[in-house]
TrEMBL record:
Source taxon at top rank: Bacteria
Alphabetically ordered keywords of this record: Membrane, Transmembrane, Transmembrane helix
Listed transmembrane segments: 7-27, 72-89, 96-116, 122-141, 162-182, 202-222, 229-255, 261-283
Protein name: Uncharacterized protein
Source species: Pseudobacteroides cellulosolvens ATCC 35603 = DSM 2933
Length: 293
């Protein structure tokens, strides 16, 4: 694998810093509400602030999200990163795809922590994780010979199912985020989930990067383009972690007494299952090359 030395160093660095960030967040993210207090935002809304632990300046509504995100990164993301690196170093093409997709998850996660979270003691750790994940992800993508990649895909690859699912997932993300944004623009009121934050960060990431990537990847794979196979493989593996995160968060929010739209409660668990099916299809229909590509 090209750049294996640099990728290995970066992954070890990411694992070490992720362990620090996740454990610090989990240990200090208390379930108690003793530290919560009201804060009047610049838009005149009264927001309840968490008030304790590493995420003390986050809104109380975000506390549950962070409570779920750190354990998933710790117990799913970090082990996947280690396992996929070991497989990738053995010149396993599926391991390399899994490594690239997992790095995409870490890239997404720590971009959001660096830019969207309220400033805390781990800010520089988030910046380093974002930087290392970005570089490692780019190196992994560059390590593939895109033209040769097509030859390792079996002819029976169900591209219509995989491409159609990616379009469906893009539509699901737009359905999740756009109604609230459009309602805010139409009525001149702050979006419901804005709280005391400056902007809608996750919405911007999903609508600005994930949705276009899903659509472009779907179009390319439906046309049987080599880049489409690679992008679809990486995006499907990234989607596993993201859909699982949203599904688990939705369950916790319901158990916590929050009112959730029925569509949201059903949509992302279904997406998680379908993504798993797509992942299985991809792994069954990619042949291991005789040498690295």
């Amino acid at each position: 694998m090209k750049y294996s030395k640099y990728i290995s160093i970066l992954v070890i660095f990411i694992v070490a810093l992720s362990l620090l960030a996740c454990l610090w967040g989990i240990i200090t993210n208390s379930n108690e509400k003793l530290g919560e207090y009201d804060f009047k935002s610049i838009r005149g809304e009264t927001i309840k602030i968490n008030g304790s632990g590493l995420y003390r300046y986050e809104s109380a509504d975000q506390k549950l999200s962070l409570k779920v995100h750190d354990p998933i990164t710790l117990f799913l993301g970090v082990p996947l990163l280690i396992i996929s690196l070991i497989l990738a170093l053995k010149r396993n093409i599926k391991g390399r795809l899994l490594l690239t997709g997992t790095l995409g998850y870490f890239l997404y996660t720590y971009i959001s922590y660096a830019f969207l979270r309220m400033y805390n003691e781990l800010f520089l750790v988030y910046v380093m994780l974002m930087s290392a994940s970005t570089i490692a992800f780019i190196l992994c993508m560059m390590s593939f010979d895109i033209e040769k990649f097509c030859s390792y895909v079996k002819p029976k690859m169900p591209i219509r199912f995989i491409g159609g699912y990616q379009i469906l997932l893009a539509a699901g993300l737009m359905t999740t985020w756009l109604p609230g944004i459009m309602d805010s623009l139409a009525n001149g009121n702050p979006p419901i989930d804005l709280d005391h934050y400056n902007s809608l960060g996750y919405e911007a990431l999903d609508l600005g990067f994930i949705v276009p990537a899903l659509i472009i990847s779907a179009i390319l794979v439906l046309k049987r383009k080599p880049l489409g196979y690679l992008l679809s493989s990486v995006i499907i593996m990234l989607s596993i972690s993201m859909n699982l995160l949203i599904s688990v968060l939705t369950v916790f929010q319901v158990l916590d007494g929050m009112e959730m739209p029925i569509l949201l409660m059903v949509m992302f668990p279904i997406f998680t299952v379908i993504t798993g099916i797509c992942l299985g299809m991809l792994l069954r229909n990619i042949k291991e090359p005789s040498n690295s590509i």
